[in-house]
Amino acid sequence: MKKWLTTTLCALCLLITLPGKATTTTDTLLLNRIYRYADSSYVQPTDTSYYSYTRYTIDIRRKNIFLMAVPNLFDMARSGRRHFIGESIRQHVYNKKGVRDSKTLISYTTLPHSENILPPALMYLSPTLYRVTLVDKFLLSPFSRHNKMFYRLHVVSQTDSLALLSFKPKVDNTQLVKGNAVIDVRTGRVITCHAEGEYNMLRFELDTDTGDKQHDKLMVTRCILRTTFKFMGNRMAATYRVNYDMPPIDSTQIKPNKPAFTLNALRNDSLTRIEKELFNPVYMADIGQDTVRTQAEKPRGRFWRKLGDYLVDRIGSDFGKSNQGYFRFNAPFDPFYMEYSPSRGFTYRNDFRFGYTFNPRMSLFAQLKAAYYFGEKRVTFYAPLILTFNQQRNFYSRIELSTGNRIYSSTIAERLSESLLHRLIGVGNDLYQFTDNYLRFETNIDLSPKWGLKTGFVFHKRKPLDLIPFELLDFPREYRSFAPNIEVSIRPWGWSGPIFTIDYERSLKHAFKSNIGYERWEIDGQYLYRLSRLRCLSMRLGTGFYTQKDQSSYFLDYANFRENTIPGGWNDGWSGEFELLDASWYNASNYYVRTNFTYETPLLVASWLPYVGHYIEMERIYVSALAVKELHPYFELGYGFTTRLFTIGAFVSNRNWKFNGFGLKFGFELFRHW
Fold this sequence. Notes:
- By secondary structure, this protein is mainly beta.
- The protein is elongated and about 90 Å long.
- The protein has helices spanning 2-17, 24-41, 74-78, 119-122, 259-266, 273-288, 299-311, 418-426, 468-472, and strands spanning 48-62, 83-94, 100-109, 133-135, 138-140, 151-158, 162-169, 178-184, 190-199, 202-209, 222-231, 234-246, 315-319, 325-329, 338-341, 345-357, 363-373, 378-390, 395-408, 433-448, 451-464, 479-490, 499-506, 518-530, 536-549, 591-601, 616-628, 631-643, 646-655, 658-668.
- Residues 1-7, 9-26, 290-301 and 566-572 have low confidence and may be disordered.
């Protein structure tokens, strides 16, 4: 590591002292070489493996009680220690399809209970310099041609072989970085790079070295990451050092019971003075005994740790010999599971997920999603169970149970005379709202990349929310329907293009005590078109209609046009939905035609504003239109943005060419990706 830093500093000094030869033409030629380097250096994936070494130190410089509210930091906040260290060696295996499998060969940490601290920082350790995003799916890279409109790039100094390039964003925004890089003038390769910025509560400085790897010239060989985390008066600093160019590790060199001893022998650089102070106690423990013993945890300590796990930390674990199973449960008191919308008020939601992989083709997945609506004092459950038989053919069976839903229907009230209806409503009776519980079963298979087939059935059981008027009128207290269905999926351009579906559903009256008969068709098309620079266009167009209905009683209930009671859709969970539409309109017409468009992009409008624009990560424009009985047409326009703390959207609606209303939708984002 010292050799790398020395080489970099010498190169920078040489560039600064030599006379510069950069001109506008030379700058353009150099930038074009940088932009083309990724294409010219791409190597087809092959079966290969390599080893990496990681070391990190964490320093809590200031802490208070609010640190307990941060995911994974509850136990650290209670600990009396402020300095921690950890090391690991991992093996990475690539196959010809470009899929990477990584496993840890040896590791140790002084963190309490070996917790994964600052998980967002780990994504910075594998930067992709030449892609659109520098880190995972965020931070626009200055070395990508698609992002040149956001950066000012300037050649500070240049020799015949090297150039010092500085880059800084044209606008202060969290998706952009600033820094400098040493460039190979002949090829455009980034030799070393220093970038700094701030994203997702972390301020960072990232130093990378691309080395001289032959099998993957686009990958960094070494990187140093320095991060600072601040929250409610707390301050934490962390430093990560990664070397992706380790020599092959022989299994005989690894002593599982002595991780510090093993890593001290395999480490190819030197520890700093502070690192040695943190490392020595662990190393001496390894030397003095065969197994590193940890002090037994007191019952009181276990209680507080478990309390923190259950209240503010996400709960989950992997199980099985090869970690083929897992379960996850979101922390019950995380604020970002709260949401506000003008149509439903405040909503709290959470979910439990379970998965198990039997083999590469067969797997099992179960989920339980729940939501509580404070305004209606109502709980909704949604529980799917999916058994996948062949993942490549998308061949699976799914059973889904949902309770606590609400549905509106005016068909029963329309059977009454106007005077009787007014008299019942006048004394507070409700003939329009019903509870809706259903069981759905379906089996899906992709016949080819362009065709899919799904068959199954759905069973609904609906009851009036107010039973009194139904008892007085001697109307049924329960309405049941059993309906087989079939869906054909059409993908003209395969999975990379739009998806069109045709649904047919028909209720079988008297089957399973069904007392409702109907026949329904729906046609729907969706396309999630991903553009460059993290931009995305979500499009949806659909229609549905009933070709047969009972004369006595029926419910207008569609599969592709219904109130989204438990949010979770496209990128933000709001796209493809109507935010201000009253719930009764979903069940008020025997036909519908709908369309929804959402344009998502960073750096659109608000991101360019002084100061506040820095914190805006993503912006969205929503356009939705609907035509149903008595709504010709209904429009919604909206604008929203996401910050590290929250996502907010403002919507305005128009009904039959007249202003209908305005509303805001709000959701928490704090620590969502931690």
